[in-house]
Amino acid sequence: MLEFEEYKGKLNAAKPSLELLEGALKLDAARKEIEELEAASERDGFWNDVQKSQQVQKRLKTLKSKCENYEKLCAAWDDMMTLCEMALEENDDSMLEELKQEYESFAEKVESTRLSTLLTGEYDANNAILTFHAGAGGTEAQDWASMLYRMYNMWADRHDYKVKVMDYLDGDEAGLKSATIMIEGENAYGFLRSEHGVHRLVRVSPFDAAGRRHTSFAAVEVMPEIAADDNEIELRDEDIEMQVYRSSGAGGQKVNKTSSAVRLIHKPTGIVVSSQVERSHFQNLENCKNMLRARLAEIKEREHLEKISDIKGVQMKIEWGSQIRSYVFMPYQLVKDLRTEYETGNIQNVMDGDLDGFINAYLSMRAAN
Q: Looking at residues 294-303, what average pLDDT do you find?
């Protein structure tokens, strides 16, 4: 029964951290705001302004989720402590495996919640827009880009985030040339901003009949979704050139084969965005505007610029020496982040969306600097 005593000690040691989280999450203020917003939503005429009422409901959902998640952590602590005390009292070790699993999940959630309190950037709470670009290397690089596309979709699914496809261009034989998705959920950008950069793959290529080892590169751009009424990121009509063209590529269900695809060119910076997945020209145009606002905001924040006019459109170099992370399948298995030195040999888990170790290491590194 010694192990139950050890877990009881771990739980007692974790209690102060759990209590500190309540203050770090500013739950008292959140509960007060919930009361105020609920009272406002019950007033006559609240639903007359659709845009404002939707914003209030979205804010309410976010605040309630924050409070509920903390309450679940407290309930989990209580349940585990009760389990320990029952097992010790009845001298029953049959619940040890259940306790181990619950404690591991509890510790991960506490750490994840703690790190979420570090997300204090201007756009950290926003949805994230991810754009994937295959590097040089043809089919091999395009297949690697599609593997990353799948990886981030699976990460989003693990965290109960929604994914919306905004653009998708198939590869010549396999994979994809480029794609853009929006990951919707609280703090999506704050967590995923660490993924911005070039990702390097080393493996024996399934497209090489000789079975040789290949190195491939793909870039992932991570940008915050910016509301259309955000005064910081204003799109002026005179700064934008719009082109309409016919969708291309195999696409499957992702691409609509009509002349509704839209490409926007931001003249001051040279930034180009496109969308061809929606059925109407207007929907693709809205996608493009969302992407353009997001890219301008990301560059403005990353370069510490004061105004949009300072932004220059610089293309990310998708090549050796510019990678942030390496994924090695052969001759050994290893995924290593070159900024934090965090690494793991469980490459299949990573490709199935288990990225939290890398994300948490990056957030911890930023907090320490």
A: 82
